[in-house]
Amino acid sequence: MSDPDTIFALVALGLILLRYCFELWLDGVNAAHVRKHAAEVPVPFREIMDEETYRKSVRYTLAKARFGTFSDTYSTAVLCILLFSGWLASLYGLVADSTGQSPWGLAIALWAVVLLLSLLSLPFSWWSQFRLEERFGFNNSTQRTWGSDQAKGVLLSFAIGVPLLALILWLVEATGDTWWLCAWGVVVIFRLLMSVLAPIFILPLFNKFTPLPDGGLKERLDALAKRTGFVNAGIQVMDGSKRSKHSTAFFTGLGKGRKIALFDTLVEQLSEAELEAVLAHEIGHFKLKHVPKMIAWSFVTTLIGFWALSLLAGQAGFAGAFGFGAGIAPVFLLFGLLAGTVTFWLSPLSSLWSRKFEYQADAFAAEAVGGSEPMITALRKLHRENLSNLTPHPWYSGFHYDHPALLEREAALNTAETGGEKP
């Protein structure tokens, strides 16, 4: 290696190992913090969980931590071996030689290499679903459903990802030094388009959506939407129980075409008043402009990412440090593999921003339904049913939790209801 090649390789290795060691430390302090409170249900949670359920939640948290440490160790080792042995460059060269050097050929080569890399982690995905989740009673998926999901994901990634990659690679050739701005514009348009098309054409490939049946719940939720001025195209129930007993609610689509989707497990677990509070929380995100703010920020970070990518593409030693030859396509591949080692350190900032939005949406929900009690009881039930970690270490939650811990949310809701200062 030349000196620039060596510098890039050493910096990349240092960033990978630094992140891995820090994550290992985070997992350790969080596990120790959980064990510290494992002997008995902490006083604040005795109204939420019985002792048996609490101990099960501790075991679930620690089991996920052990699994996460093992899988992270494996993925870090595989990444280092592939990058610094030259095997990844050889694999890419072999595939690219067969697909050609046109934008379409290079896009297919990138897709194929990423697919092969994803196959290396597929056993962990299977183990998580059919061993870890099964052990704690959450898995409802069958081997056939899981396999079908994987196959559909591969086909969709090819049908959608390859044309997008080919267009961006063509822009590199056609627009010169401003390619990264043009590529960013294409990605922005693509994301907005997918926000409209995905709920119509993609989500139904994986789950069944049915209108919420007429009755008291539908009338209550429709009245909430009308009361808060939230225009939507309907309330749907998604068969989330087809795969898992975990539950949530979300919105799909943009503008007047957005729809409310409730997991069927959520409908089963919560009362009508609690479901109304959860929906009011989600409406709060829209009414308080959290969604457009997050979308706009994602566009800003994407722009920064393309700019950084263009700078790296101009450095001949970057791709060479890992055994690749000239060309923009290898830089795309390397950037995708290494960007997380940098953005990881910014996660506390994004988590802090997300938590602020959660507090605001909780306060909106409390006001919309006439009090904080339904939201608090809904949160307690969801934490109990999902065996959530009730005692995360502050450092761990700062890096990994984009929602506040349960006690923090309850305190904020009670403060907001009494007219105190909101977080």
Number of DSSP strand runs? 4
Distance between the terminal alpha carbons, to the nearest Å? Answer: 52 Å
| Helix content percent band | over 70%
The coarse overall form would be globular
Overview of the molecule:
With 423 residues, the protein is mostly helical. The chain has a domain at 3-175 and 293-329. It is built from 16 helices and 4 strands. It has helices at 3-36, 51-85, 87-99, 103-135, 143-175, 179-206, 216-227, 264-269, 272-287, 290-313, 316-320, 328-343, 347-369, 373-385, 394-400, 406-417; strands spanning 209-211, 235-238, 249-252, 259-263. A 4-stranded mixed beta sheet has the order 1-2-4-3. A hairpin with a 6-residue loop joins strand 3 (249-252) and strand 4 (259-263). Helix 7 (216-227) runs parallel beside helix 9.
Give the key terms.
single chain; 423 residues; mainly alpha; four-stranded mixed beta sheet; 4 strands; globular
